[in-house]
Write a structure and sequence with these properties.
Arc Repressor Mutant, subunit A, 11 helices, 354 residues, alpha+beta, four-stranded antiparallel sheet, 23% strand, 11 strands, 3 domains, five-stranded antiparallel sheet, single chain
């Protein structure tokens, strides 16, 4: 391989594109994308001819002898006519010129990671993972880390979405709702994140029809259809910041961020302290605790806590799940929302208790 640093940089980006079997790249696409990456690194752009020579070197002249296949896909041009687009990629989807031999320790660690991933029914089914598991000799044996039973058993939805997110591929989701299980709904989604909450997996992505980031419960997704010719829109929101402001997955921008103060009995205070309801949870002590003791003399012993988040379904469910062991003190609207939930529950029980 030539020692030219810029050539090695180009080979790195070309290698990534040729190894990507989830997008269809032409020489023109590779030329454009490589130059974008070079510009980000303050390296002068190169000509299309240079890219063609680089690919020829990887395929025929260098030490790699990469097997590159050429194929055609149908696309629409600017005049909405269907034309053939000439594309290229590695024939072996597991090939890369930058693969290195793993040490024994690295191989063991990778083996354990792949065994961990194998606990998701969707993941072992996506292309290449089983091949990789075989190459690093993942052995059957007792689990070191285990998850709760995967509610997606028997489906490949998780693996398909995992791949779509990694490859920045727009997808068409075909899904149903619980009230209308036979009515198929189709959404065009730019997938960003898979997140688990309360033994249920959710996809977060930008819904093209509604022009907003939404979440989708995976058990309601019937199929995932990749749309490789669609332009992927990166996430404009900070999803980490969104999760910092809520419990669970439901985000309502119309609900303000609020400080919620609550009391927990001696029976549950240690549980709440060691398993916080929210990352912002704080135990109130000192002057603030003294003020609350004076304000609520009927709440003897126990402990006072606060969290800062937005109201949503999951928040109210958490606050009511402790029954009489947790009392919301402020703000008034959250306190009343919990009170109403408890009242509705009592009314339901009155109708069935004999």
């Amino acid at each position: 391989m030539p020692s030219n640093k810029n050539a090695v940089t180009r080979y790195f980006f070309i290698d990534q594109l040729l190894a990507n079997h989830y997008h269809d790249y032409s020489i023109a696409d590779i030329h454009r994308i490589v130059n974008e990456h070079l510009e980000e690194q303050s390296i002068a752009p190169v000509t299309k001819r240079t890219i063609e020579m680089d690919i020829n070197y990887l395929e025929n002249e260098g030490p790699f002898l990469a097997e590159i296949e050429r194929y055609y896909v149908d696309v629409q041009n600017a005049h909405f006519k269907t034309v053939k687009k000439s594309c290229l990629r590695y024939a072996d989807r597991t090939f890369s010129i930058f693969k290195i031999k793993l040490t024994d320790d690295e191989q063991f660690l990778l083996s354990e990671v792949l065994s961990l991933l194998g606990q998701f029914d969707g993941l072992p089914d996506f292309d290449g993972l089983e091949s990789l598991r075989g190459k690093v000799e993942v052995k059957d044996g007792p689990r070191i880390v285990a998850f709760d039973k995967n509610p997606l058993e028997g489906t490949t939805v998780f693996g398909q979405l995992f791949t779509a997110i990694a490859q920045k591929t727009v997808v068409e989701l075909r899904l149903h709702t619980f009230p209308l299980p036979d009515a198929e709904i189709m959404n065009t989604v730019h997938p960003y994140l898979l997140k688990e909450y309360n033994r249920r997996w959710y996809l977060f992505g930008y819904n093209s029809e509604k022009s907003m980031v939404m979440n989708y419960a995976l058990e309601r997704i019937d199929s995932v259809v990749p749309l490789p010719n669609y332009t992927f829109e990166p996430c404009a929101d900070d999803l980490d910041e969104r999760f910092e402001e809520i419990i669970g997955v439901t985000f309502d921008p119309g609900k303000p961020l609020q400080q919620i103060v609550f009391w927990v009995s001696d029976l549950s205070k240690d549980y709440v302290a060691t398993k916080p309801l929210h990352d912002s949870q704080r135990t109130l002590r000192g002057e603030r605790e003294a003020e609350l003791r004076q304000q609520y003399p009927q709440l003897t012993s126990g402990a006072f806590f606060s969290i800062e988040c937005r109201e949503n379904y999951e928040l109210l469910r958490e606050l009511t799940s402790f029954r009489k062991e947790l009392i919301v003190l402020s703000p008034k609207e959250i306190q009343m929302a919990v009170f109403e939930k408890i009242g509705e529950m009592c009314e339901k029980y009155k109708g069935v208790i004999r």
